[in-house]
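Forum: Protein Structure Q&A
Topic: Joint prediction for protein chains with partners

I've read a bunch of threads here and the consensus seems to be that you should model interacting components together rather than docking separate models afterwards. I'd like to see that in practice. Below is the full input, 225 residues plus whatever partners are listed. Could one of the regulars post the assembled result?
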Amino acid sequence: GAVVSQHPSWVICKSGTSVKIECRSLDFQATTMFWYRQFPKQSLMLMATSNEGSKATYEQGVEKDKFLINHASLTLSTLTVTSAHPEDSSFYICSALYRGAEAFFGQGTRLTVV
Amino acid sequence: EDQVTQSPEALRLQEGESSSLNCSYTVSGLRGLFWYRQDPGKGPEFLFTLYSAGEEKEKERLKATLTKKESFLHITAPKPEDSATYLCAVQARQAGTALIFGKGTTLSVSS
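Posted by a regular:
Agreed with the consensus. Here's the joint model:
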């Protein structure tokens, strides 16, 4: 099957700093990638859709200036949480669209802002 | 509004006790329905994609079926290692390729 790798798996940062999370499709090219956020015992909440070479499409209520998404190549998308605050602490998960149809997910990144 | 509802929220089974998980959906034109397994602290693991009513897919002890209004994930003779949260998601034509997730069913299988 298709493999999506997310890095880092977990990160702790100080309030006010920025954190970058990488999402890579290892064995296929992904024109479209997605970023989700998941709170404890909740389902996945779509944050944004990332298309290679174009600006990301953010869901309603998601701050574009806080969650910067870049999809510069067909195998890499990055999510940068800028000026992080404790309320940004969460589990962030990316997915990549395989053959334009099936979404495969990374292993997730646990972000803790202290 | 496109919506996915999963039931039950939690399910406890004895090893070998077969059961089914339900996923009801309301969507303006279904492009595809997806089942994922998620272990604690991990990303969802792809299980199945179903595209049309009447379609069925199997993988080991799991079998997924699809009707025009719902999907079932049947678990036959489950083992403790099947314990996980099972997520259902739909892909609606109007929403493009983004998945709309249900809240999941947390399955616990005891030996």
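Chain B has a mean pLDDT of 94.
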